[in-house]
Design goal:
Beta Polymerase, domain 2; three-stranded mixed β-sheet; 3 strands; globular
């Protein structure tokens, strides 16, 4: 429902949440791709981060779009 409500085409976890060094102090990095013409803007992203943080037990969430990532890193995350 979260993805439908926010017009998200793809949501994927990346970064330390997928590695053995992930611990209780780690944030959760999430790649988000929106449906065409559905970019929520900076304030919309911030609201989604707070909502996801609540859903994930209060852990800090960093949402990133593919455009936020360097080309090299983006290719690694999208594979």
């Amino acid at each position: 429902k979260f993805c439908q409500r926010h017009h998200i085409r793809r949501l994927a976890v990346f970064g330390s949440a997928l590695r053995p060094d992930f611990d209780e102090d780690s944030d959760i990095d999430i790649l988000v791709e929106f449906e065409p013409h559905q970019s929520p803007g900076l304030f919309g992203i911030a609201r989604m981060e707070r909502e996801l943080s609540t859903l994930l037990g209060g852990r800090k969430v960093d949402l990133r779009t593919p455009e936020d990532l360097s080309r090299y890193f983006r290719q690694q995350v999208l594979q």
